[in-house]
Amino acid sequence: MARIEYPAEVRALVSELKRLPGVGPRSAERIAVFLLQSPKASPRELSGALQQCAGIVRACPTCGFFTGESGCAVCSEQGRDTAVLCVVEQPTDVLPIERSGVFRGLYHCLGGRLSPLDGVRPEDLRIGELVRRVRDTPGAEVILATSSDVEGEATSNYLSDVLSSCDCSVTRLAQGLPAGGGLEFADELTLSRAFEGRR
Amino acid sequence: MARIEYPAEVRALVSELKRLPGVGPRSAERIAVFLLQSPKASPRELSGALQQCAGIVRACPTCGFFTGESGCAVCSEQGRDTAVLCVVEQPTDVLPIERSGVFRGLYHCLGGRLSPLDGVRPEDLRIGELVRRVRDTPGAEVILATSSDVEGEATSNYLSDVLSSCDCSVTRLAQGLPAGGGLEFADELTLSRAFEGRR
Questions:
Q1: Within this chain, do residues B135 and B44 fall inside the same structural domain, yes or no?
Q2: Which of A31, A50, A95 sits opposite B47 (nearest CB)?
Q3: B141 and B112 in a common domain
Q4: For residue B3, is it within any domain?
Q5: Which of A129, B37, B83, B194 could form a disulfide with B176 if both were Cys (CB 3.0 to 4.6 A apart)?
């Protein structure tokens, strides 16, 4: 006799939910059942929000940040210093920098970082667009804000080389102790960089 | 100056995702960004699966299990013993029992359990439907398979009372040591029930 399963529609939903990051088979089932029977659930609203996002949200052709119907919130904002470009790996890196309030220039999202092991080569990133933007802004300052791990460093090194022929100054974010972090929690590499960068 | 945020469409998606069980603000953002930019993501498929579920999946009017377009997989299955009814709290309780392969009768999902504190009264559960089914099947066996916690027990007691006027035998799932569980892991209540139910 056939084994009883959820209806095909529910199984299709579970298998789509399972593909989301951080959602395993059990939580996918839990979420599906919640969406099906909880009075607090709104599967149609979630479905609509997904449709909207898939249909409307794009990467800004200039900076690579997410843009909706109202255009790029960063590029279109008045009063930003257009002569300073902060280069980040992902559009998601923009918000933490914005929250810090310390940077008032424009961004350039690469869309990733160089990673030969994962098959990410320079032509897979938005590096050509970066060079074009820098050429169009003589005397610009470019702040490389990639991660401070091996691949992020390699990406920064590569960009420094590429940009050396342009009329711009290239800086990198400082490395050292995180604010509020005691010495006992700092790893050796962080400590050695904090010493190198002492001032 | 306005603070930079994700576009309205992305924020709407994040706020819908945050309402799912086990998904906090950070994972909602992570899932939204994955859906927006990962080549492995399929937001339209997820949206479609949600629409399908919301539009098609219902509770079976007889047993309360989920039914899709193909009808109730349990009620429509040939060869089940229609004289035995297993009463469970939720439709999700059906699959674990089916997986055990030990039960070949029909189910009745109550849609919850009695809980005065949460305002769940007898008329909020599918108890009237249960009584009707039992009356329509003279000599039926009703197996009460509610949880073995206080509210599940109270629900079982209530159902026993209600069904006492019907022509049916009412049993409950045995309580005792879980299979493979050593005595050292058993709590006092489980042990005392294992002693009471010894055979």
A1: no
A2: A50
A3: yes
A4: no
A5: B194
Chain A residues closer than 8 Å to B119 by CB: none
B94 vs chain A: nearest CA distance in angstroms?
9
Residues A50, A75, single domain; the answer is no
Closest partner CB to B19 (pick from A20, A40, A92): A40
In Å, how far is B107's CA from the nearest CA of chain A? 12
Whole domain around residue B83: which residue ranges?
Answer: 66-172
Picking from B148, B68, B140, B65, the residue whose alpha carbon sits closest to that of residue B110 is: B65
Give the CATH number, domain containing residue B131.
3.40.1360.10
Joined tokens for residue B24: 């906090």
Which residue in chain B has the smallest CA separation from A3?
A: B98
Contacts of B64 in chain A (CB under 8 A): none
Report the CATH number that the domain containing residue A30 is assigned in CATH: 1.10.8.420
In chain A, whose CA is at the least distance from the CA of B35?
A: A20
Q: Per the structure, how many domains does chain A have?
A: 2
Q: Find the CB nearest A4 among B22, B52, B73.
A: B73
A-chain CB neighbours of B13 within 8 Å are 46, 49-50, 52-53
A118 and A38 inside one domain: no
- Taking CB atoms and an 8 Å cutoff, what residues of chain B touch A41? 19
Residue A177 lies in a domain: no
pTM of the predicted protein model: 0.78
Along the 199 residues of chain A, how does pLDDT read in single tens digits? 457 889 999 999 999 999 999 999 999 999 999 999 888 889 999 999 999 999 999 999 999 999 998 889 999 999 999 999 999 999 989 998 988 888 999 999 999 999 999 899 999 999 999 999 999 999 999 999 999 889 999 999 999 999 999 999 999 988 888 887 777 877 888 888 878 877 7
The number of C-beta contacts closer than 8 angstroms across A and B is 185
